[in-house]
Amino acid sequence: MCETRSLMTRLRGHILCGAAALALGTAFQPAFADDGHYGGTLKLLGVSSEGTLDPQINYTARYWPLFIWTHDGLMAFKKVNGPESAEVVPDLAEDMPVLSNDGKTYTFKLRQGIKFSNGKDLTVDDVVASFQRIFKISSPTSGSFYNGIVGADKCLAEAATCTLEGGIVADAATNTITINLVAPDAEFLYKLAVPHASIVPADTVMKDAGNEPIPGTGSYMFESYDPNASLIMVRNPHFQEWSKEAQPKGYVDRIEYTFGGTEEAAVNAILNGQADWMYEPVPTDRLAELSVSNPDQLRVSPLVAWWYAPMNVNIAPFNSLEARQALNYAVDRDALVSIFGGPALATPVCTILPPDMPGHVDRCDYTADPGELWSAPDMDKALALVEASGTKGQKVTVVTDDSVTSRGVGTYLQTVLSDLGYDATVQSISGDIQFTYIQNTNNNVQISVTQWYQDYPAPSNFLNVLFGCDSFTPGSDSSVNMSGICDKGLDDRMKAAMVLGSTDPEAALKEWGDIDYDMMKLAPAVPMFTPKDVDLISTRVGNYEFTSQFHWLVGTAWVQ
Amino acid sequence: MLIVVATLLAPVYAKHVAGTDPFRSGLSAKIKIDGKPTPVMQQSTEGLGLGVTPIGPTWGPQYMLGADGQGRDVAARMLYGGRNSLLIAGASTLICLFCAAIIGIAAGYSGGMVDGVLSNLIDMIWAFPVYLLAISLSIVMIGKSFALGPFEISSGSLIVPILIIGLVYVPYVARPIRGRVMAINQSEFVMAARGLGIRRWKILLRHILPNVSTTLIVFAPMLMALNIVTESSLSFLSVGVQPPNASWGTILQDGQTLLYSRPWVSLAPGLAIMVTVLLLNLFGDVLRDVLDPKSARGR
């Protein structure tokens, strides 16, 4: 029952729930039930590595699921299977924070006796230095997640001299940390639970650590990292389990992540028992066969994500509302779902908030039969809108990355745009640069194909981040509002909803649902589908657990 | 010749035989097999029901070689793609031979500083691995439209791969042409012509060019074979022909992800490339034997 409540309710009720759970857990926990599963080596495969090993900088879905096992924040998302994993629990903090000053001040008591993997004790100074480090190294989310901390504005302006004065206050005597915010932020605890808020030793280098592992407090530590070959994780010798929910002791002794090869080779290696899991999606031409021959090795899990086509509202032809709406009416979401592997792997969507995101409401106007769900494209209406827009015949380039699915979606959109009367082409560029390329207004991207996965389970992480005025920075590679839309009315409503979330979460979620609907009236993007995650695992992997936040929990799996 | 004719007839095949548009996504398309409507993209219904597989070869008029991941007729795309592959290879061969002939003859015949500058330029381009140079140029040129004099070339235009492939092989032809010109320039009949006071440009036109032209003709089919492979490689790497256009290279790339379930999508363009290149090389050998009897006797 605890997991169904809102965040603020949970904050108040957590102590009671936690105490009850602790009592029950202690009373009924079978002694040494899973002891036989400890040990062994988990072998993971990936086509490539994905950048720095610095948890406060790396912003990739490949490494975040690893950082949660090597580093901790003050808070953590529960490392459990299913929807409960969206809850935040105290991690390095002893308990949930005490809120004061109208929700603008959070006071945490730091756990004692915790050591980093280099043997040093964790202190409140490490916490302060870690928050300063977020700004000093220009962490990708320093300006979006942590800009509400008092003093953050100065840190963002002058990173090198960042002190967060008045924002983070440590008291070594009471072992407490106080964080002061400029305004209440209902999502702040989520932001403390992502890897960018990892607590690292105070003497950590104040720049991107690159390939050098940074000591952490997690149950594992990085032993070695060669981006061209492998990443090895071993047990942290100084780790003592303090919270099974936040940082459980992992089952395997060693995790070997090998880079290189192809997806096909990875599938064969897993089927032959030479590897246990692959990061990349299973190639679509193997899925049908595997779902018959090896169904026990496939795990399909829902994701809080969407594939969408942002349309640049500032340049032709999509500076015309009718043109944007026309494409929304014309796109056959079922066809796009088939590119992704069929209805078992993706669901058509009409809204910005994915179905499993709080605040989502089933509503669809851009379909032949408007109602709750998408039914079929309405080509007649789309053609009429294009005619009314006066944009017919204009040149449109769809920019995709070079992955199979993205190119497939781009090719499909090119066909639809041609059917609507545009002179459409597809430009496929390397996945390494496509995401930043489509953000930069200097590249004059008209329409692109991209995806967004939740950072944390809050509607603002989709609506405000992807379509808020603050996310639009012309001429920058970090302008994630790729549509370039800035509707002052909706932007004010989003800001108000974020504040409302700290006092009346239910009303805030309802407002987010309405904002979603109103934003789609402006059609800044074509929502296409929400994908599902498919993992192929070896036969020896047991206790597979999946969270929508960090996907497969590698540490809770066993191999013997 | 048969391949060229077949590719020229691609629109006729696509429109009147296959009845499909090979450049449109056919994800929701259906065809009749044994009188029953069958979806082109077939949803798996067994096991966990994961995956959608395009229809395989029907060996009939529609979807003879099956469909690709977009539900498009592979056979029709093969013919259209072949036309583009041959067009790019042919045009780039002509560009390459033209540029190489001018540079090689100018360097070999003029000598001195002109030769020094041109030879160093050739060496500089030669220093780049050909594929690295081609990929680099492609990435720059396919990103945006650009102007070539009064003409604007769009990013997806076939002119882009034609120009790139045509230019990267210039040093490989210009260098032997230069050597050949230098050799001819020292031959007795040229010396005699020079001794008779015949003007330089007349010697060039009457004695040098006819002797070099046979070398260029022998180069042509072999260079075209090489250009087909280069175009396919660039398109396979997404830096050659851009969608919605097709070439054998792009079809090969489309088929890469269907290798396990629908191998014909890759096999068909692969075989087409292999056969065409083989025939062009054989043709080149025959041409060389005809135009250069000394070399034929020597073997």
TrEMBL record, chain A:
It is found in: Periplasm. Its main location: periplasm. The keyword Transport applies. GO terms for biological process: peptide transport. Keywords: Signal, Transport. GO terms for cellular component: ATP-binding cassette (ABC) transporter complex; outer membrane-bounded periplasmic space. The keyword RNA-binding does not apply. One of its GO terms (molecular function) is peptide transmembrane transporter activity. Residues 1-33 form the signal peptide. It holds the Pfam family SBP_bac_5. Residues 87-471 form the Solute-binding protein family domain. Belongs to the bacterial solute-binding protein 5 family. This is Peptide ABC transporter substrate-binding protein. It comes from Fuscovulum blasticum DSM 2131. The lineage of its organism: Bacteria, Pseudomonadati, Pseudomonadota, Alphaproteobacteria, Rhodobacterales.
